[in-house]
Design brief:
The complex is a heterodimer of chains A (83) and B (1280).
Chain A (H helix, E strand, L loop, with lengths): L1 H5 L11 E4 L2 H10 L9 E3 L3 H6 L6 E8 L3 E10 L2
Parallel strand pairs in A: 2-4
Antiparallel strand pairs in A: 1-3, 3-4
Chain B lengths: L14 E2 L5 H7 L50 E10 L4 H10 L11 H18 L4 H12 L13 E5 L3 E5 L5 E4 L1 H9 L3 H5 L14 E7 L8 E2 L5 E2 L2 H21 L4 H19 L20 H5 L5 H6 L7 E8 L7 E5 H6 L1 E5 L5 H10 L7 E5 L5 E3 L6 H7 L5 E5 L5 E5 L9 E9 L4 E3 L4 H4 L7 E5 L4 H11 L6 E2 L4 E2 L6 H10 L4 E3 H11 L16 E3 H6 L8 E4 L19 E5 L2 E4 L4 H4 L7 H9 L1 H22 L12 H26 L11 H28 L4 H8 L5 H8 L3 E2 L1 E2 L2 E2 L24 E2 L9 H36 L3 E2 L5 E2 L5 E3 L19 H12 L9 H9 L7 H14 L3 H18 L7 H13 L20 H9 L9 E4 L3 H4 L2 H11 L2 E2 H4 E7 L4 E6 L1 H7 L3 H10 L6 E2 L6 E5 L12 H8 L2 E3 L6 E7 L2 E7 L3 H6 ...
Parallel strand pairs in B: 9-17, 10-16
Antiparallel strand pairs in B: 1-43, 2-6, 3-4, 4-5, 7-8, 9-18, 10-17, 11-14, 12-13, 12-14, 15-16, 15-18, 19-20, 21-22, 23-24, 24-25, 26-29, 27-28, 30-31, 31-32, 33-41, 33-42, 34-39, 35-36, 36-38, 37-38, 40-41
The chains are: A alpha+beta (83), B alpha+beta (1280).
Chain lengths: 83, 1280
């Protein structure tokens, strides 16, 4: 698996933010808040090490919680797409 | 519709690209063009010639024979040429080649089985539905797969290999190796057989672009408006290049046609065909590779269709993206400190040439009438009058101006001269950021130059050494309103680049303010009143500071008059010497500035407190607390008062002031005398190999580093001695220390020593063999021989020194020239990549297609130009609010209570502000019932600072990064100290980051270790040794092949082994690992390894170098691509810094803390840690690159650029191969780079440009949908 060829979990690196896969309800409410289609979201590849470690599938929306100097914490979303 | 214009204004909703089909060309044609004759003897165009009157006319006395209109109304009509044979359209050759390869030569189907076709069709559908686009990659995969087929899966026909003989011929090679040409008509026939459904699989839209249309059988002839002829002075006509080319085509077509009809020899017919193809190809593109460009009789290369569109001088960039304008002026600028900062002095001559339209009404009728009476030549007058019926009357031609003036009434529009108070837009190129264009109020002045207040120089980057600037006059009330409310200097004190004023005092204003506020400055009553009057303060003077023997006022008192009565400020002046122990109360330099209740109590005013391009100045605080108007008044009064003061006092600088006292001269001389011996000592150490090597550098490099270090140290110290001995009463020192002009370095150069000169960051070493100049001995590494300049400007340089100085001087000139080019291009790319991004009403940053780039602009949604140097100044607002609400303080509120109140507002404020607010409330002790009141006020303040919807944050970000690019050094390397590793910095590094290079020029890593290895230097060093990549070459002194036994003999170097921390046996292990069987130590010599060579070789082959080279490269230890490693202490742990980077492998090492490993290679981070980590690292790298150069850029801009670069899931570069290349709009892409290929691709794919982006709209002359352009009326229609 991934852990073997990397030697550690990329999600534990200090550069990596917190990731969560959105549930169906969260997904619907996100798309409604911003009045968008999933394709309007920023993307993340399914081959991305973080996506693999998270086990997300293409079509999933990932919630990303970053540390931010300006706001303390900032939330970002990305749609998983296949390469 | 108004009676003056028959043209109705319509807006372009979308543009569909496609290939013109022959039927359409014929139908659209107004005339067939068939003869190569153009005019008859009397000069009238021949019917059927290229200037046929049915194509329209541009001659004033002719009428178009198609629409009957005079030239002003006729839009021009296309004609057509019937080609005797189909011809290849050169622009499509690449696509023709691909299509020939992937479709069946007999049935025309795509060479994929029906199953695969269905599969791909499904995939394409899926992509469209799920993600809204089809990746380019899928199409190229289909093409690749189809190319591999040798038989048609549909009809079974075997496929021939297609050969493309550039530029326009295609051949197929049959299995029996016979090559035959596929002529254009055959290509056409094949393409006609390709079914629409199959084309869709390739992304081709068959509706707009059937492939057979890529073969021309009829050629459209553009109307004459597109190719006007000019009449030379001699009366001779000179035709446009396109006309020439069209005539060539007709001539060639005619020859071919006649040849065909007369049954000419096929060889000759082929010649004719080639000729026609040549002319058509060069008509389309005269720079086509593989064929000679078509030339005019004079030998000048013709500019044909592609050349007209392409490049900087092409249609897109020269005429569509930018247009020439009326109502503008340009002249030399000069300074005038008596103007207001938001004024511009306009020469009367210009004011008389520019006009402002003003509609007559009851209130201005008399005034406008009197302007008309003055006419166009007497200022203030008027140039034109537009009657309500639309007729435009030029006052030059009106005989009785008086009578005419009396006749005007409401509804007339008078175009009057530019007058005082009119708003105009002032600009200096290069317009690198939005404040390169600002609104100014006109002040008509005598003279021939435009004048501006010196304080507005920084945003324009203007000086007065001959700079010219442009002025534009808005022509309608909407434009005037926007100029006044958005563009005015007043509204742009704070630059969005770093959220601090870019405008402030400069040069003389700083010297003057310093001299005025020094403690020894006292003014008599007369002088003090003069200063007050100059500043426009008409009140009673304050109590004089000294009453006896005569009343005297201090300069500080004068300055205090400019400040609001309740102003409070504390800060350090620029003259502050940064003493170890700061005695705030008795600073000898008056470096500590204290303002209380609007009174300057302590300290002097200089660049640090009123300078430009600085955060935290008095001016900045005034803007924050009292608003732009107060700050503006302060700046105006300040400059008038200070100039007055300087006039009274006088200020100058003498040459003789720079002579140093004897003892300082002696001190400097003594110091300089040590330079040569010190350097010689280092060289001596080097020669006797006693010099300690700097880790990560070779011995030679270490030597140079030590010498450079020594010499710059000596120079710095001479400068210090000089500057200190001159003292604060020296006029030159006053200027440098207060930040008015010049630096300590400049002073040192003038009166102490110029110090070491450098080329490419090293001492000067090139020139003659072994020496830079013939005045020295070969191999002389001494200070003087390698460019150390001992003299100062004051003393003058020796001839050799002069040469060295010129070398360094030239480098800096070349550097500047190269840098402006590079940063200019970077700016263009940034703008094109980010121009479409703007803030939407929901606070997200999106492109015009609704794709989100950031969910909240800059994480907190705040506009940096409304911040205090990037931060929301919560403390300041809090205090203002608490004061204005007159609240009771010092009451206790429980944490829980406070938290519960705050939680209600947690969605409205960023987390960090909520925390800060909590602190403020607690320390201040706001009573519980008042807390919500305060919070609501803070929320209101926060909402005011949020970026406005429609704000073009993309462009602002691009400008904020591109503009400082011009100020960056190009010098790649930088000596921070002897031990600093060489890292790419400055502009090259910034370009490298934004270009997303696969590997940086100087990859480095910062490796943190697990606690057990990070405690001591020794442990860390061990790990560092292990890291460095070593091959067999490094650990051996000799590698030889024993020919007869087919063995390799390797002599190990114990020294090298020790350095790498390896044992001899490790080498054996490494060899077996590399696949060598049974490597053994020699029985006689324990440091020799014998190993059997892998490959058998012929006994006669005695060349072993290849085998030896292979052996040399066998990895022994370390991590590949890590070339050097050194340890360093950071905090209380030892860390490793490496040259070379390999994130993947380093994280695997057991000694390393994988969660903190860092590399400057962003691509590697993307691969190993993912796109999010790459984004963070990219921001970090850009930020530190800018910071290292001392450039202040708000983090929001950097983060937006990084978000845009990573929005698609992988790093995309700023430029053609990334963000700009992936733009949706064909026109925007074409306007950027690769103009014609982009249009061609768009045509084949049948793409639609929805005209939503910025570039497209500019090209079409439409209003831009950003800023004030997003305001529109939306109606909710009842749902049906």
């Amino acid at each position: 698996m991934l852990k073997d060829n990397l030697g550690f979990n990329p999600l534990s690196h200090e550069l990596s933010p917190k990731y969560e896969i959105l549930s169906e309800e969260e997904r619907i409410s996100l798309l409604k808040t911003y009045r968008i289609k999933p394709s309007n979201l920023p993307k993340i590849l399914d081959s991305d090490p973080a996506v693999k470690a998270l086990g997300a599938k293409p079509g999933d929306i990932i919630k990303i919680i970053r540390k931010s100097d300006l706001a303390g914490e900032s939330v970002y979303y990305r749609l998983v797409i296949s390469e | 519709m108004s009676s003056t214009s028959e043209l109705e204004a319509k807006s372009i909703d979308s543009i569909i690209f496609g290939i013109l089909n022959p039927t359409f060309i014929r139908r659209y044609s107004a005339a067939e063009i068939f003869t190569d004759e153009v005019y008859d003897e009397d000069g009238t165009p021949i019917t059927g010639g290229v200037m046929d009157l049915r194509l329209g006319t541009i001659e004033p006395n002719q009428r178009c024979q198609t629409c009957g209109s005079p030239p002003s109304k006729c839009p021009g009509h296309f004609g057509h040429i019937e080609l005797p044979m189909p011809m290849v359209n050169y622009l499509f050759t690449k696509q023709i080649y691909t299509l020939l390869q992937i479709t069946c030569r007999s049935c025309g189907r795509l060479l994929l089985s029906q199953d695969r076709i269905e599969e791909y069709k499904k995939q394409i559908e899926e992509y469209k539905e799920k993600f809204g686009f089809v990746p380019e990659r899928l199409y190229s995969q289909i093409i690749r797969e189809a190319k591999r087929m040798s038989n048609c899966p549909h009809c079974g026909a075997s496929q021939y290999v297609i050969k493309w003989s550039k530029p326009t011929e295609f051949y197929e090679i049959a299995p029996e190796k016979t090559t035959s040409r596929i002529n254009p008509s055959a290509i056409r026939e094949r393409f006609e057989r390709i079914p629409n459904e199959d084309l869709k699989l390739l992304g081709i839209n068959p509706e707009t672009s059937r492939p057979e249309w890529m073969i021309l059988e009829v050629l459209p002839v553009p109307p004459v408006q597109v190719r006007p002829s000019i009449v030379l002075e001699s009366g001779e006509r000179s035709e446009d290049d396109l006309t020439h080319k069209l005539v060539d085509i007709i001539r060639a077509a005619k020859k071919l046609k006649e040849g065909k009809e007369n049954g000419a020899n096929p060889v000759i017919l082929g010649e004719f065909e080639n000729l026609l193809q040549y002319h058509i190809t060069t008509y389309l593109d005269n720079e086509a590779s593989g064929i000679p460009p078509s030339r005019h009789r004079t030998g000048k290369v013709l500019k044909t269709l592609t050349q007209r569109l392409k490049g900087k001088e092409g249609r897109f960039r020269k005429n569509l993206s930018g247009k020439r304008v009326d109502f503008s002026a340009r002249t030399v600028i000069s300074p005038d400190p008596f103007l207001d900062v938001d004024e511009v002095g306009v020469p009367e001559a210009i004011a008389k040439a520019l006009s402002v339209p003003e509609r007559v009404n009851t209130f201005n009728r008399e005034r406008l009438a009197s302007l008309i009476r003055n006419g166009p030549n007497k200022y203030p007058g008027a140039l034109y009058v537009i009657r309500p019926d639309g007729a435009r009357i030029k006052l030059d031609f009106v005989k009785d101006l008086n009578a005419f003036a009396n006749s005007i009434s409401e509804g007339y529009i008078v175009e009057r001269h530019l007058m005082d108070g009119d708003y105009v837009i002032f600009n200096r190129q290069p317009s690198l950021h939005r404040i390169s264009m600002m609104g100014h109020r006109v002040k008509v002045l005598p003279g021939r130059t435009m004048r501006l207040h010196p304080s507005v120089c920084p945003p324009y980057n203007a000086d007065f050494d001959g700079d010219e600037m442009n002025l534009h006059v808005p022509q309608n009330t909407e434009a005037v309103a926007e100029t006044k409310e958005l563009l005015e200097v007043n509204k742009n004190f704070i630059t969005p680049r770093y959220g601090a004023p870019i405008i402030g005092a400069l040069r003389d204003l700083i010297t003057g303010a310093y001299l005025m506020t020094r403690k020894d400055t006292y003014l008599t009553k007369k002088d003090f009143l003069l200063l007050m009057a100059a500043a426009g303060i008409y009140e009673d003077p304050p109590e004089p500071a000294v009453k006896e023997p005569e009343p005297l006022w201090s300069g500080k008192q004068a300055f205090s008059l400019l400040l609001p009565k309740d102003f409070v400020y504390r800060g350090k002046a620029k003259v502050c010497a940064n003493c170890k122990e700061c005695d705030e109360n008795n600073c000898p330099n008056e470096g500590f500035v204290v303002v209380k209740n609007g009174i300057l109590e302590k300290g002097v005013i200089d660049q640090a407190t009123i300078g430009s391009e600085k955060a935290g100045t008095i001016l900045h605080e005034l803007i924050l607390r009292y608003g732009n108007e107060v700050a503006h008044n302060f700046l105006r009064s300040l400059s008038r008062m200070v100039i007055k003061f300087l006039q009274l006092r006088g200020f100058t600088m003498l040459y003789s002031e720079l002579f140093l006292p004897e003892e300082s001269k002696k001190e400097i001389d003594d110091l300089l005398n040590t330079a040569e011996p010190e350097v010689n000592k280092i060289i001596e150490d080097f020669r006797s190999r006693k010099l300690e090597r700097i880790p990560g550098k070779s011995e030679e490099d270490s030597l140079e580093a030590y010498i450079m270090d020594k010499l710059s140290e000596i120079r710095t110290r001479t400068g210090e001695i000089a500057s200190n001995s001159l003292g604060m009463n020296n006029n030159a020192v006053i200027m440098t220390r207060t930040g008015a002009r010049g630096s300590d370095l400049n002073l040192g150069h003038i009166c102490a020593s110029l110090g070491p000169q450098s080329l490419h960051g090293k001492r000067i070493s090139r020139g003659y063999i072994g020496r830079p100049l013939p005045h020295f001995r070969r191999g002389d590494l001494g200070a003087t021989a390698r460019g150390f300049i001992r003299s100062s400007y004051l003393v003058g340089l020796t001839p050799t020194e002069f040469f060295y100085h010129a070398m360094g001087g030239r480098e800096s000139l070349v550097d500047t020239a190269v840098r402006t080019q590079q940063s200019g291009y970077l700016q263009r790319r940034l703008i094109h990549a980010l121009e479409t991004l703007k803030v939407e009403y929901d606070g997200t940053v999106r492109d015009p297609y609704g794709n989100i780039v950031e969910f909240k602009y800059g994480d907190d949604g705040i506009d940096p130009s409304k911040t205090f140097h990037g931060v929301f100044p919560l403390e300041v607002y809090f205090n203002i609010i608490v004061e204005s609400l007159n609240l009771k303080t010092k009451t206790e509120v429980s944490d829980e209570k406070l938290d519960s109140i705050l939680s209600k507002y947690s969605r409205m404020l960023p987390k960090i502000l909520v925390n800060k607010l909590k602190n403020e409330i607690k320390t201040y002790g706001i009573a519980e019932e008042d807390i919500e009141k305060v919070i609501r006020e803070i929320v209101k303040k926060y909402e005011e600072t949020i970026a406005d919807p429609g704000e073009s944050v993309g462009i602002v970000a691009a400008q904020s990064i591109g503009e400082p690019g011009t100020q960056m050094t190009l010098r790649t390397f930088h000596y921070a100290g002897v031990r600093e590793a060489n890292v790419t910095l400055g502009l090259p590094r910034l370009i490298e980051l934004l270009d997303v290079h696969r590997t940086p020029k100087t990859p480095i890593m910062k490796i943190y270790l697990k606690p057990e290895y990070s405690k001591s230097r020794e442990e860390a060093l061990k790990v560092a040794r292990k890291l460095v990549y070593k091959t067999l070459e490094f650990v051996s002194t000799e590698i030889r092949v024993l020919h007869l036994r087919n063995l390799a003999l390797i002599v190990l170097s114990d020294e090298a082994l020790q350095e790498a921390g390896l044992k001899r046996s490790d080498i054996v292990k490494a060899l077996s690992l590399a696949g060598f069987k049974n490597p053994k130590f020699s029985k006689k010599r324990s440091n020799v390894i014998l190993v059997k060579l892998k490959e058998e070789r012929e006994a006669t082959n005695l060349d072993f170098s290849a085998s030896v080279e292979k052996l040399k490269l066998i990895p022994i230890s370390g991590v590949p691509s890590i070339t050097r490693a050194s340890v360093e202490k950071e905090g209380d742990e030892w860390i490793i810094k490496t040259e070379g980077s390999n994130l993947m492998e380093v994280t695997k090492l057991p000694e390393v803390d994988p969660s903190r490993v860092y590399t400057n290679n962003i691509m590697e981070i993307q691969e190993v840690l993912g796109i999010e980590a790459a984004r963070t690292a990219l921001i970090r790298e850009i930020k530190s690159t800018l910071e290292e150069q001392g450039l202040d850029v708000d983090i929001r801009h950097i983060s937006l650029v990084a978000s845009a670069m990573t929005a698609n899931g992988r790093l995309r570069q700023i430029g053609r191969h990334g963000l700009s290349g992936e733009k949706v709009s064909i026109l925007a892409k074409a306007a950027f780079e690769r103009t014609v290929p982009t249009l061609v691709d768009g045509a084949i794919m049948g793409e639609t440009d929805y005209m939503k982006g910025m570039t497209e709209r500019v090209l079409a002359g439409e209003e831009i949908k950003a800023g004030t352009g997003v305001i529109d009326i939306f109606v909710d229609l009842p749902s049906s």
